[in-house]
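Hi R.,

As promised on Friday, here is the backbone we talked about, encoded as structure tokens. Could you run it through your design pipeline when you get a chance and send me back a sequence?
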């Protein structure tokens, strides 16, 4: 069996939707990918307490605030509409299923830790208003761009890196041996999005994208979700269920996979522009 991130994504959906077991070969492929990502991203320093974990995360966030990636700068300042469509396509697998796998995490948390997760999920699903759910907002963006809104179309179109991002959350919520990995990733992710997504909101302003709410909503609400992530860490620590090293490994791994997915999506978009130019030469 030839394994790939795309096949793993399909298997994750079959498990979620139809309770169809994931083949052993794909589980082995997934474990090797996760272990490699942790190994490649791990720092020499490891936290030994919640306060130390928080200090290390804060230092990492401040570093990222001051270092705008060239790919993010390109999105904000130069990306064309056609290129943007490819970028949107590469994250559609996440946008069209956003936060659904979080449900699988909930029973693995103690009751106190479930509360901040529940508050985050309420926002993810539009406080019960389907029109305000993040998936509906993503569909609105796809419609404005004249793109399909069904999941299958985007599975077929996505590259490997685009599939890896949602696959990471499936592993974190359903198969990781400790919810600490997820607690680290979600706290990191919700903390960086409010400033990282500014490249998207700047692009939407520049190109006149009306369905920008998916991005602007994240810039607004994830400030609060970052606080909930800190409450999640604290609640797990109160119950002595937080593994500080695994939480930090989750942060580093999640950062690596997320940044790679974004960079590869931008490179794919840029390559399409080069190919189009060559075709008209």
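Update: got your reply. Pasting your designed sequence below so it's all in one thread:
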């Amino acid at each position: 069996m030839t394994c790939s991130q795309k096949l793993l994504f399909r298997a994750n959906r079959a498990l979620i939707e139809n309770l169809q077991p994931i083949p052993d070969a794909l589980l082995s492929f997934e474990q090797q990918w996760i272990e490699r990502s942790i190994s490649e991203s791990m720092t020499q320093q490891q936290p030994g307490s919640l306060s130390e974990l928080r200090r290390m995360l804060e230092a990492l966030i401040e570093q990222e605030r001051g270092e705008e990636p060239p790919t993010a700068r390109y999105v904000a300042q130069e990306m064309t509409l056609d290129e943007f469509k490819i970028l949107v396509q590469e994250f559609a697998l996440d946008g069209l299923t956003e936060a659904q796998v979080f449900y699988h995490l909930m029973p693995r948390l103690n009751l106190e830790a479930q509360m901040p997760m529940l508050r985050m999920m309420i926002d993810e699903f539009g406080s019960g208003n389907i029109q305000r759910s993040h998936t509906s907002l993503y569909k609105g963006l796809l419609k404005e761009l004249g793109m399909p809104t069904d999941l299958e179309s985007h599975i077929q179109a996505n590259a490997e890196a685009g599939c890896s991002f949602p696959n990471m959350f499936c592993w974190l919520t359903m198969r990781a041996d400790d919810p600490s990995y997820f607690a680290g990733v979600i706290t990191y992710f919700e903390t960086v999005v409010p400033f990282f997504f500014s490249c998207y909101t700047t692009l939407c302003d520049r190109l006149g994208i009306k369905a920008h709410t998916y991005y602007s909503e994240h810039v607004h609400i994830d400030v609060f979700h970052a606080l909930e992530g800190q409450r999640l860490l604290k609640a797990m620590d109160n119950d002595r269920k937080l593994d500080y090293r695994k939480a930090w490994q989750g942060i580093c791994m999640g950062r690596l996979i997320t940044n790679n997915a974004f960079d590869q999506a931008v490179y794919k978009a840029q390559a399409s522009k080069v190919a189009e130019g060559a075709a008209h030469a």
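One thing I noticed while checking it: The chain has a mean pLDDT of 95.

Thanks again,
M.
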